[in-house]
Each structure stands twice: as structure tokens, then as C-alpha cells.
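Homework help board

Subject: predicted structure for assignment chain

Our instructor gave us this sequence and asked us to write out the predicted structure in C-alpha cell form, then describe one feature. I got the C-alpha cells but I'm not sure how to describe them. Can anyone check?
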Amino acid sequence: MSVRRVAALSWVLCVAMAISGTVFLLLGPGRPISGDLFGGAGGLSFLILALAFATVGAMVAARVPGNRIGWVFCATGLVTAAGILAYEYANYGLYAPSGRLPGTAAAAVFFNAESQIVAPLLGLSLLVFPDGSLPSPRWKPVAFALVLAVALMAIGGSLHPGLLDVPFATLSNPVGIPGARTATNAAGMVAWLLVVAGVGLAATSTLVRLRRSHGVERQQLKLVLAVGTVVALVTTFDMASWIVSPEGSERLRIALIGVSFAAFPVAAGVAILRYHLYDIDVVINRTLVYGSLTATLAGAYLGSVLLLQLALDSVTSGSSLAVAVSTLAVAALFRPARARIQGVVDRRFYRRRYDAARTLESFSARLREQVDLDALGGELRSVVQDTMQPAHVSLWLRTPGARH
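My C-alpha cell output:
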């Protein structure tokens, strides 16, 4: 079977499992169950995540078959889709109106064992990005540790005896080995230590590649690191907010994590297939500017609302005057704040572009006052040299009255 057919088959299989998982998700319990994180929006977001990995993986595997990351993405998509399908089937089978369905416990066990191995697969994809090979032979132990973590998680999660985790805490593991609880717990602990160390080192390998890279590879790494940073910030914020989250919002928070992680394979696919790759500098610039602008305006809005409510409470009790004034103030701050933040970002992260813009502004101001043609030509050559940095600069001036 050709490489393209294998890639297409993996994608079709993932789509079939995603559709089946969606059907069982819709047929599942109509009310949230304690610990049911992958029902509703949570489960749907991870099905989208599976399709993102499978689609990008199939495209990369078909077009660049020598790049291992395509096959890692295909495996990640299949594993995620299979796990969510197993979860939704077990969830429906456990609470089905007609009684418990056959294979419910087996599906729950499969989900428990499989759901954990996505993390080491993500670590492997980081380790071999963007060309599908390790940065150097010295990184082989990291790859081996991640592969070992996959094996330990799959075996330990499958053979752990006793009751399963929530929301399947009423089911016992039908393939669990009695007396193996200590061994499976130890395997799980070792596996997670390997995952934490392996993913951390994989992220470090990406930074090492970036420092040594140039040209196309540097643009590829910048794109994935930019998206990875946003995903990490979203995940950190989401995890931290679990402490103060209202009851019943767990599914939405899982959905946020699933959708944010789906951006990683999309960014990796764009980088590997080199689609508008050199637009990444613009994307990073806009992300920094509008991310900072949003945080600044949100903080200013909340702060002004609270201060105005405290200051005007005796005058405007029960009215929305503070909200209206704060909204108008934030709207007025938008343009000057965006310009100021853009200047700070350019000055800090795009210094050459910032210096070039300042040089052109200064030259434009002097141009209005300059009447000496020779001095003007010298300044023009100097500005072009400073801003464009060409190998050679020459200025040709047509003699007055000369014909073409």
C-alpha cells in the first residue's frame, strides 16, 4: 500500500471515529454528571483536536513522507479520536435507558489507558519538529523516555485493578490483574515523571534549534513557538482559574484547552508545508500588540468601573453610569494605547525596523528644509544605507533639460 493511501486511510478512520463519538455524545446523558469532563463542549473540542492532528498529519505524510512528524500527528489524531469515542460510548452505555450496554467497562478501561498517552506523543512531535529528525544523536534518550512513557501508561492504565476513575467509578476493570495495584501505580508515576522531563526537554530542543537555525527553518520554529506560547498561556490561565470557577463550568474549561491545543498541529502544518510562512513576523507582531492591548484595556475597564462605583455610589446608586463612563473612556484610549504599545513592541522586538522608521521620519523632516542638491544626495545615500543595508548605493541625477 502506498504512503498516500496509508495517510488517507488513517484520516478516514479518524473521521469515522469522530463522527461515531459525536453520535454517542449527542445520545449521552442530558445532564452533567460529576466528573463528566468530556461530555458536551468538552468532548466536542477534543474531537476537533483529533481531526486537526489527523488532517495535518495526513497532509504532511502524503506530501513529505520522509518527515516523521506527519506520522506522529496521524497517531495522535487516531489515539485521541479513539479515546473520546470510547469515553462517549462508555458514558452512554453506563446510563443508557435500556440498561448497561455490552463492552461499557472495556471502553472505559481503554479511555483510561489511552487518554494519558497524548502528552508524550506531543512531546515527540516537538522533539522532531520541523524536519522529522532529532536535533542530534544526543537527544535519543529523550525520545526513548517518551516512547517508554507511552508503553508504561498504556500497560499500567489497562491492567490497574479495582474500580475505575470518575465518572466510571461504578465500574471495575475487567482485565485488571489482582494484586498488581502497587506495580501499576509505580508504572504510572514513573511514566508521568518521564513525560514531564521529556516534554520539558523537547521544548528546550526547539529553543536550541531556533538559536542555531536560519532561513526557512527559523521561520518554521518561530511560528510554532509563537503559537505554543499562546497555548501555554491559555492553558496556564485555565488551570489556575479552576480554583475559582463556578460549579458546572468544567466542560467549558476543557473545551477551551481542546480548542487551544488544536492550534498547534495547524501551525505546525503551515510551517512544514511553508504556506505563507514569512508572514509569521506580522502575526507575531500583531499578537504581541493586540494581546497586550486587550489586557491593558480590560484592566483599565475593570479598574475604572470599580473606582467609579465606589466614588459615585451615593450619587448613582443602582444606575449603570459607571459602566457607561468606563466604556467611553476605554474606547477613547484604544487608538493612543495601540500606538504606544506598537512602539514599545517595535522598539523591543523589532529594533531594526523601529530604527529604520525613525531614520526615515528624521530624513523627511530635514528634506523640507534642504536646498543643497549635493547635500541632499549624500543624505539620501546615507538613509538608504542605514535602512536597507544594500551592498552598494549609487545615485543618478538627470541633468536639467536633458531628454530621455
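Reply (TA_rk): Your C-alpha cells look well-formed. For the description, you could write something like this. DSSP finds 13 helices and no strands in the chain. That's the kind of observation they're looking for.
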